[in-house]
Structure formats: C-alpha cells, structure tokens
What does this fold into?
Amino acid sequence: MSTARSSAERGPVGGARAAVADVRALLQLRRAGLPERGRRRLRWAALLVGALTVGAAAGPAYLGGPMPRADAGNVLALLPSMALAFLVLAVVAVVAAAGGRELLPREEAVAFPVSTTADHLGALLLAPLNVAWLLQSWLLLGATSYAVGPDRLPAALLPVVLWVLLATALAQAVGWCVEGVRRGPRGARRFRIALALMVAAAAGVVATGQQTALLDRAPTGVVLDAVLAGAGGLWWPWAAYVVALAAGCLAAVSVGVLPARWALHRPMRAELGLEAGRHPARSDARSDLAALVRVDRASVWRSVPLRRGIAVLAVLPGLVAMAGGTPWHLATVLPGLVAAGGALLFGVNAWCLDARGALWRESLPVAPRTVFVARSLVLLELLLGAGLVTVLLVAVGSGLPSPPEAVAVTACLAVVCVQVVAAGLRWSQARPYAVDLRSARATPAPPVVMVGYSARLALCTTTTALVFTGLAWIGSVPLVLAIAVAMLAWSGRRWERTALAWADPVSRARVVACVSG
Amino acid sequence: MRGLWVRFGEVAAVQGVDLEVGAGHATALLGRNGAGKSTTMRVLAGVVPPTAGEVYVGGTDVARDPMSVKLRTGYCPDVGGLVPRATPWEHLQLAARLRRMTAWEPRARDLLERFALGDVAHRVTSGFSHGMSRRLSVVLAAFHEPEVLLLDEPFDGVDPLGVEATMEAIGDACARGATVVVSTHLRELAMAACEVALVLRGGAQVAALPAAELAGEEGAGVYRALLG
It folds into this structure.
C-alpha cells in the first residue's frame, strides 16, 4: 500500500503557511475575547514597551557622556557573557514552563485543530511576554549602545537584536527537547539526574575558579565580533555575521518544529501520574482554618506547574547568588525576586485554585474571612519558604552576615512577602480568571496580563529591596525594624481592605462565578 | 421565594420568580439554557445574593443570614462543583469539619459505594469523567442529610446506575422530610423524581404545574409549548 502523502496532507512549506495562518487566527480569537478597555490597555502597553525598547537602544548612546567612553571596553568585554546569560535564562524560562506558554489554553484548544507547529510558533511569539526577557533584552541593547556611541549605532545594534531572536528560538527548541524527555518513560528521573549533573559541573567550575576562563571562551563572542564590525564600519565581515545570525535564527525556528512535535505527541506523564496517584486519608483537621489550609495546600502541591515553578524559584536565584558570592547587602534583592515570581505562579489569581469547585466551596458554612485567611496563609508560607531557601543558599556562598545585614535581609523577606500577598489577593479579587492549573504550561492569567502583573510586582519588590539595601549599608538595626514595621502595617491595611471586599457577598459571588467558569 | 430578581450588571438573569416547596416534597425547575434555573439554585444555596425579592430557605432569609442557609442546604452545582486537586474523601472531610459532623466516616463510605465511587475515594477529582464528577457532587450535596437538597443538573452525563442512585438519594431526602429542588433538562427524569414542576423562560416563571401534566408524550407537547 502506498504511504505517499495524500492530497489532504500538507508538505513542510504548506504546513508552515497553515501554522502561521492558525497562529494569526488564534491571536485574533484572543483579541476578540478582550473587552474594549482591555484592548485599549493592550495598545498602551505595546506603545510603552516599544518606547522603552527604543529608549534602551538609543538613550545610552546619546546620553552616556562624551566619546570615547573610558569604560566602554569593560562593557564590551562583558557583552559575550551577557549574551550567554540571556540564552541560559531563556532556556530556564522555557523548561520551567514545560515548553513555553500556549496561545490558547489546552482545555479551550481541544475544539480546534491546532497543529504542533502552530503551538511552537505561538510559544515563540509569547516568549517576549516576560519581564525577565524584556529586561535582559534592554540590558543587552543598552550596554551595546553605551559602549558604541551614536556613530553607526544601528549597525552595531542589529547583531544584538538578531542574537536575542536566535537565543529565543534556540531556547524554545531546547525547551521542547527537555519536555519530550520529561514526558517519556522515567522522564522526571532522567531530567533530575541531568539537572543534578549540570549543577555539579557548574559547582565544580566555580570551585576551581575556572568561570572567567570559561566565559571568555563562550561562543557568544561572535556577537561582540559582529557589534565591533558594525561599529568599525567593516561592512563585509559585518554582513557575514548578520547573515549568519539571521540564517541561524530561521534555522532554529524551523528545526524547533521537530522537537515540538515529538514532545507534544507524548503523554503528559507528570500530570497523569498526579491524577492517577492515591492520596491516603489523613486525620481530621483541628479547626476550620486548618481544614481549609490543608485543601488549599493540596491544590498547590498537586499542581505540576506550581510544583515546578516553586522548585525553580526556590533554588535557581539562590544557586546563582551562591556561585557569584553575592555580598549580603545586595542579597536583599533576592527575596523580592523570589516573592514576585511565587505570586505569578497562582497568587495573582488565587481563587483559581478551586477552579470549578469554587461554587461548592462557597456553599459550605464557613466565614468568608476564614477562607480568605487560609488562602493568604498558603500563599504567604509558599513565598516565605522559597525566599528562605534562597537566603540559606546565599549564606552558603557568602558566609554569615553582620547583624544589620541579617536583620535587613530578614525584614526585607517578611515585607516583600506580605506586600506580594496583599497585591496578589487584591488582583485576584478585582480580576479573576477561570483557569485550570492542571497543565504544566498553564498560567493563572492570560500572558499579556501576566506581563503587567510581573512588571508591577518587580517594581514594587525591587523598590522595597533597594530601601533595605540602603538600610543595611547604614547599619542601624532599630531603623531597619522601624521601616519594616511601617511597611508591614501599610501592606496589612491593604490586605484587610481586600478581606472586607471578599466578605461582601455580591463581590464574592462575582469572583466565584468567574473562576468556576 | 417570592419575586426573586437577580441582576448581573445590565443583565437580569432571574426576573420575578416565585417558588414554594414544602417539607418532604420535590420540585423540578425546567427550562431552556439561560432560563435562570442555575442562578435560582445558586440563590437558594446562599452562593449568589438576590438583587430583589424575598427568599426564605427553611424559614431563614437568604439575604440576611446566608450562613444558616448554607448549614441547612446541600448543593450540587451545575458546573463541576469539585476542587480539582482534592480527593473525594478530602471533599467529604472538609464538608464534615465545616458542618460539625461527627462519626461521619461510615455514611461517607456508604454513599461513595452507592454511587460507585469507593474505588476512587483517594484519587484527585481532576482525572474524573464528567459522570463521575456529577455523581460525587450529588454525594456531597446529600452527605449531611440537609433540610433542603438542591440538585442542579444531577443527571447530566450520568450512567443508569448513577441515575438510580441519585433517584434513591432524592427519595431518601423526601422520606425524611427534606425539601428537594431539582434543576434539569431531562424532563422525564425530573418528572419521575418530582411532584411539581416550575417552568422558567428568559429568567421569568411561565408555569407551575403538577409533574404528571408534563410526563409522557402529551407532557412533551405541553412542555414544548411552554418553552415557546
């Protein structure tokens, strides 16, 4: 029997065209789901991101002082390492998100014949909707712009832009490969062993002091060569670099289709394993609050995306800080980073944990405040736990802090966690979404909304961290404690206001009806 | 319930529905999609507050004291109704704790067995089929032997044995003097389970009549005419 392609099947080019058309249709579908206010906000957000990108690319060149700049050489020397860091973090983001975000959540996409190629292109398209991706891109553009100056700036920036695209496409392909392995037999164990080996290798490099030599030999040196060629007016080598980077980009996007198809056609073993597993009965809880906390905790720890996200957040920033020997007065930034990331796992839409069970839970005879406190406690303990692991890893790398530093880091951890809990619950009340956090690729809100949340959380926690960095530097323990108490009181007041809103039956009914779909 | 109105912004989901069900009796809420059946059930369960009208459940005003209403009612919601990553046993344990039930385990086991859910009592509900989820929702509603049993689409996607078990639960509730309200699209099952039917259309009540009048071929014609 002939196994030739039938007339209904498409070749690679036809398939790619159809996938692009599918992506366009899915984007239109998502856009159609936005109210007019949401569309207006989206336009403003796109304008803001565009303006900030232009500002990051051009601002440092014109505002960085007279040319030639004394430290331009140092900045350029760091460019290959920064480009490599961009690639590594892009890979981590895709791997943590089990292959990247979905244009359409899985449970909604079942009615549509969305191909794996369209899914791959959609994940690539959504990759920039991430504050870490944006900040790193701006950093690369800004550093290049500062070092090169206004002359021949577009030629110097073009290779950087192409590298950002290439690294994103490469990260996506690697992410699909990792997800494919994870979904295979004993995939989780294989992934953990590979991860442990990589961490051990990285620890070995740091312990032997080889990291600088290794970074100097990074293949991302090609980005620096291309930038220098552009800035120096060496047009033939520059054109060769640009063509090579652009071709690499196209190749990475095209090749990524293969691991995407392989991974997405494999069963979701982690999710299915959790669903098929037995959870033996425990003794009765001693109070209503304890009973609610127990169910909420189960909803968090039995969700694949939440478990993976928490593990990454608790360990990764701490490991990087440990490897880099981050000084304690700068370690105050880390708890904020971890808390903001933790809230983005589910805290910004905290009631979605109940999903379709929200209606039943609301029919139970329990005070709304107890429900609110239980959800707040579960979120708070998660953020504090992850932050504490990070701080302990910093301690391994940097030794014991001085008393003011210890107080500043502890106070910063407590303040940012309470700030983030208050903000997350406020947003959960104001803008609930019906989300099933079953799939490892699920997010608690649409990707565009998540960017807004992450930007606001990053701004808030970084500002707080800077305050405590300054206080640690001043070295006054009573001052640190006084500022911490004031900040906690402010966040506590906002939390209380949201608790009152939750206690209102009309407001609560709106949230419950929304998250239960 | 007299003159119930429920508004969501500009939309009036329920427009002046009256309903009175005595103890030991079962009433069916019938109507097309969007007729206001589920919203009415949510108001009776104390989940959605009424915008206007008087709603008393077991003599308690829903608007004034929703907590007492929740203690008296057992509610099976129309959609899902289950916490996805909790097991059936954990659902029952939470309900027992919040309803101050003691020695609840034998009844929980019995109900799970009757609804053929004993084997999956310790598995998370996100892996359940639609029918299994419906059956567990009925178990949760009937678990504490409430004064008022509210079942919204309890037969939807449920196999014949599950339908039988649900019918038994309704019969048991009526026999011990509970009030039962069943909302469903399955007219014949509703007529088998209930004595009175209330037909809603576009959020408003269009008829309240004995179930016998809506049964069989003749009843189907009457029902179609009422739906408009």
